[in-house]
Write a structure and sequence with these properties.
Elements lengths: L2 H6 L1 H9 L14 H14 L17 H24 L5 E5 L4 H8 L8 E5 L19 E7 L2 E7 L9
Parallel strand pairs: 1-2
Antiparallel strand pairs: 3-4
Helix pairs in contact: 4-5
Length: about 170
């Protein structure tokens, strides 16, 4: 975990340690998920025989994002079933946080074949933090090929990363 995330998620880190996990804070780059993912993948590549790479975020090279989608798809299936049971119809709109992507892809996967359902991924803007200090933000807009999390990916880009949905 990034050292900032270890601090912010202290109760969860405590629970992980109680269950036997060794949590290694990453103190490079932004000290957040992005750099923790990179550090974990580098550690795996240095010793793939005795190291296992597993991630709960929708990042990294294939097949990891697909695996997270498949594991989290239960969220979308259950949301769909419960909404239909409660209302007799599909929702008009879905909205999910996109920080690491697992919540969003889990929920969205249950509705991707329903064009009438509007799907929105949201990310907090960061309050008074200057945008140039927040490279982990999730931009939206045009699609460009880029490299991140040790993988070549198509990412959604926007010229003005500060622009917010009003």
């Amino acid at each position: 975990m990034g050292s900032i995330d270890v601090e912010k998620q202290a109760p969860n880190v405590h629970r992980m340690k109680v269950l036997g996990a060794r949590v290694i804070p990453v103190n490079q780059g932004t000290h957040t998920l992005k750099d923790a993912v990179d550090a974990a993948f580098v550690a795996y590549l240095q010793d793939p025989v005795t190291t296992m790479y597993a991630i709960g975020s929708v990042v990294g090279p294939h097949p990891f994002p697909m695996m997270v989608r498949d594991f989290q798809s239960v969220v979308g299936r259950e949301a769909r079933e419960q909404f239909l049971t409660m209302t007799g119809a599909l929702p008009d709109t879905l909205m999910a946080c996109v920080g690491g992507g697992s919540n969003a892809i889990g929920l969205f996967s249950g509705f991707l074949d329903d064009p009438e359902v509007e799907i929105y991924g949201v990310e907090p803007e960061g309050g008074q933090v200057p945008p140039e200090t927040m490279p982990r933000r999730s931009p939206t807009g045009r699609r460009e090929r880029s490299t991140g999390s040790n993988a070549i990916s198509f990412r959604m880009m926007r010229a003005n990363l500060c622009q917010s949905i009003q």
